[in-house]
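User: Structure please.
Assistant: Input sequence and predicted structure:
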Amino acid sequence: MTTQTPRPEVESTLRQGQSLNLFLATLAFGISFWAWNLVGPLGVRYSELMDLSSTQKSVLVAIPIIVGSMGRILTGALTDRFGGRVMFPVLLVASAPFVVLLAVAGNLESYPMMLIVGFFLGIAGTTFAVGIPFANAWYDKSRRGFATGIFGVGMGGTALSAFFTPRFVDWFGYTATHVIIAIALVVVAVIVWMFMRDSPLWQSNHDAVVPKLVAAAKLPITWQMGFLYAATFGGFVAFSTYLPTYLKDVYDFDLQAAGTRTAGFAIAAVIARPIGGVLSDRFGPRIITVIATAGAAVLAVWMMTQPPLEFPAGLDFVLMAVCMGLGSGSVFSWVAQVAPTERVGSVTGIVGAAGGLGGFFPPLVMGATYDAVDHSYTIGLVLLVITAAIALVFTMFGIKKREPDQIT
């Protein structure tokens, strides 16, 4: 998306439309993230039904993330051309059939079919790259940390999924649960189409997609923010999708108990994300990112000791969620401040893809390195500590201070 300098005659339109459009974008993001995370909360169920190994289970949980990650590169560029009002409904409607097909695959107990459907279910995860440039276009630079932080609350869809999906299965049945979510996607798509509007400052960018992506990829800030987002948001995605399995393996929770605690983790991250954006507006995103990555490293070390239930372990996980939420908010506040206006969608797509990929690999590593004898994920957590420490050092010393017009 590209924006112009606000003219006096459109300032009132901006003020009047900001809240509604930010709410609608957050709503669309939230329901799409619920759909994107449908496999994780039921991973234990699928493992038992199909007698999956730890590695097979982690692949099943992680596979929707790959399309939700890589697809953001394309949807970010397309959002620059078509705008959020078009892209949100298209992606929501496109995701709905695969939610239903996931139920079909589960009923057939077909692992290959679940992998294929889960791959395409990743479409739902691409909405992130639509919402960031959409929100940016409605707010001036001094409030974009706030705007992207509020939009990021939509990642609470993972909390809703973790908490309600297992309960919906108990209340309504397995197939009906997926039908309900598919209908919700379509209903929200209709609401968005009817009431959402692109910012009056937005202009469609008709540059060819590939050259536009290449230009965004040449910006140093794209890859710098991509790495930090992989470490922060990627960590959130990995935990929110794999935590039910982790809690079952380490603490022997049942499906609903693990889902409830995973929802608490996601809610803590959701609350922390807009706080990270607001604090970044005030104190700068660098210092907030430093705090987030340092905290994640320390808390991962604590996690390796397998703190006892409930309070010590719960506190560890909640604080980890807070750190990842703060970091996610601060990194995209950084993007909003320094990315060239005409390339926000493309930069967002690449950075968002990096964040999603950051959530794709950890579940695979956790599944591959799980010690079933000691019920331990020590190796995976050591790698988390190393990643967070590298991100901390890189944030402090690896990114030079630049003005926005120098990021070209």
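The first strand starts at residue 2 and ends at 3.
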